[in-house]
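Fig. S4 source data, part A: sequence.
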Amino acid sequence: MATLGIPKNTIEILQKYNFMFQKKFGQNFLIDTHVLDKIISAAGITSDDMVLEVGPGIGTMTQYLCESARKVIAVEIDKNLIPILENDTLKEYDNVRVINEDILKLDINKLVNEENDGKTIKVVANLPYYITTPIVMGLFESHVPIESITIMVQKEVADRMQCGPGTKDYGALSLAVQYYAKPEIVANVPPNCFMPRPNVGSAVIKLTRHEKPPVEVKDETLMFKLVRAAFNQRRKTLQNSVNNSPELHLNKEQVVEALDKMGLSQTIRGEALSLEQFAELANLLS
């Protein structure tokens, strides 16, 4: 079977099916076998694993996953790709199931129960830029049993996921990802590894799920409301941001008192607080 990581083979399949790239789905297919090898080895896929792949495209990475994993569930939103996957690029594999569905609307817990007896899975994906955050956060927040998420994302987003307080990329996504997982950039990937070529560089990042979160927080929801408030208006002081947040019903005095207890200045901005400090603040305010 023709390996799709080789550009010539990708072009042949696209021409055979008259496939048109859809801008709304942010489609960029990988055409570099070295990068594919790197993703598979970083994800640590073994013959015991069930892998959930988000956005298989024409099945380039799916073929690699099928070679390594016990079972692959590939969720693809674009119905025009389904015949390519089912009748062509994946037809020789009996350990793959293709689902034509929007990953954000799919009940993944139910899927994992049916397909893997509720045991932990690994997620692998080459994600379009505009939907990276909702997919990653959706997987974590719905408490799907995940061991790790290994994803190709825009380089800037990968940087944001792993940076700490006081840096310009630090924000709500950094805190949320680091609360749930340990992020590690595995590879940087230039635009010429894709078809069509994106305008920006990409990176492969592996998020290894924490056994339990690194901070003790009584009310997770409150903590994330505080985080969102802090970064929605990052130029403002933390107490003003919290005060202006429609999600939070706290007055300035409560916030000032909590900051005092933590030994922090009343004029501090949210971007200066670490995950531990946001957790402490949430605990004081709950």
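Fig. S4 source data, part B ends here. The longest strand covers residues 146-154.
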